[in-house]
Amino acid sequence: MNNKFNIAVIAHDNKKADMVAFIMKRLDFFKRKANIYATGTTGKHIEFAGVKVNRLQSGPMGGDAQIAAKIVDKDIDYVIFFIDPLSSHPHEVDVQMVLRICNVTDTPIATNYSMASMMINYLETEEV
Questions:
Q1: Which residue pairs from 65-68 have beta carbons closer than 8 angstroms and sit at least 24 positions apart in sequence?
Q2: What is the torsion angle, in degrees rounded to the nearest 10, for the CA atoms of residue 30, residue 117, residue 2 and residue 106?
Q3: Where are the domains of the chain?
Q4: What are phi and psi of 11, to 5 degrees?
Q5: Which residue numbers are catalytic?
Q6: Residue 119 to residues 24, 41, 60, 86, 94, Cα–Cα distance (Å)
Q7: What predicted TM-score, i.e. pTM, was given to this entire model?
Q8: pLDDT-based confidence at 93, cuts 50/70/90?
């Protein structure tokens, strides 16, 4: 039996440093209560900071689709997706797919630092 939340983390290029900082600031929570699943490059940045990650493919190479499939299979409980709204993304259709799947499956998703902070603050009080 898994006694941790499965949290997918994705970050656009200009938001990867923010994601690493977000996780490092809440490292105790992520070590105690979360299994992190990340798209490839985001995961590599998090691993470089010394945090254990279940790393999938990079977003443009299918990582977003892998995360979406895990959401559909109910293997992901929460998603944190730091979207860069000021840059264009060649794989925008994949971004929209993750957002759509979260909405279809009623999976909580935070798309910015403030909402992700609220999510983690809430999960700190929840039993797994």
A1: 65/94, 65/97, 66/39, 67/8, 67/10, 67/37, 67/39, 67/98, 68/97, 68/98, 68/101
A2: -150
A3: 5-125
A4: -145, 130
A5: 64
A6: 16, 23, 26, 24, 23
A7: 0.94
A8: confident
Q: Distances from the Cα of 111 to the Cαs of 14, 15, 67, 128, in angstroms? A: 14, 11, 15, 23
CATH number for the segment(s) 5-125: 3.40.50.1380
3-state secondary structure the chain: CCCCEEEEEEECHHHHHHHHHHHHHCHHHHHHHEEEEECHHHHHHHHHCCCCCEECCCHHHCHHHHHHHHHHCCCCCEEEEECCCCCCCCCHHHHHHHHHHHHHHCCCEECCHHHHHHHHHHHHHCCC
The residue count of the chain comes to 128
The two three-digit tokens of residue 127, written as one number: 């039993």
Give the model confidence (pLDDT) of 16-43 as tens digits: 999 999 999 999 999 999 999 999 999 9
